[in-house]
Amino acid sequence: MVIVGGSGNNYGAVLGAFIIWFMWIQSSPMGLWVVEMISNNMQDGNTLVEFLEDRVFYLRLIFMGAILLVIMRFYPSGILPEKNKEL
Is the pLDDT score of 87 beyond 70? Predict the structure, then answer.
């Protein structure tokens, strides 16, 4: 959570905690939606559809990893980085 928000201040840690919490809660419905979109054009008895439906909750780990990768790629210091205090 601190990595996402930024380790330089408390506001960044709180923002990172909110983002991680929100994505953790919303990742299951998003995973169900992704599986539903993939299986729309497939038959009901298809084994791939059953396989995906059984493992939809593992998509949570993929979503959380993707968030960390995107944040670390585009915001290496976090979303709210530490401000430099020059004297």
Answer: no
DSSP state of 57: G
DSSP symbol at 58? G
Are the C-beta atoms of residues 11 and 82 closer than 8 Å to each other?
no
Distance CA 61, CA 78 (A): 20
* Cut 0.90: pTM above it: no
Q: Where in the chain are the domains?
A: 2-74
Longest dimension (CA), the chain: 69
Give the integer Cα–Cα distance in Å for 40 and 32.
Answer: 12
CA–CA separation, 46 and 13 (whole Å): 44
